[in-house]
Write a structure and sequence with these properties.
mainly alpha
Length: 102
């Protein structure tokens, strides 16, 4: 699990870097975003399954297609959401006291 977790982080940082590089290329950078946006969305959905993967893929598509928003590290933020911020708390055992009237 841990190895897979950090492999996802590495891929996410790589994909974020690719998205940011297109912003730095004058004239053709915005056109590269048109190519990169659907690729990034597909990769996001492959990396994170289920409903949260679908939502994240839509968000990364929008982020990559809009001008100047390439500085947002969407893949890294998704990794943080999945593995750091959205940790499910372990349930705390509770004792239920029953009062018996005699």
């Amino acid at each position: 699990m841990t190895r897979t977790k950090y492999k996802l982080l590495g891929r996410g940082i790589l994909y974020d870097a690719i998205g940011m590089v297109t912003m730095g290329i004058p004239v053709i950078g915005p056109f590269l975003d048109l190519i990169w946006a659907p690729i990034a969305a597909r990769e996001m959905q492959k990396m994170y399954s289920g409903e949260k993967g679908k939502i994240a893929s839509i968000l990364v598509f929008i982020e990559e297609i809009l001008p100047v928003s390439d500085i947002i590290p969407t893949f890294t933020l998704m990794w943080l959401y999945t593995f750091v911020w959205n940790r499910k708390q372990q349930p705390v055992p509770q004792t239920i006291e029953v009062e018996v009237n005699e």
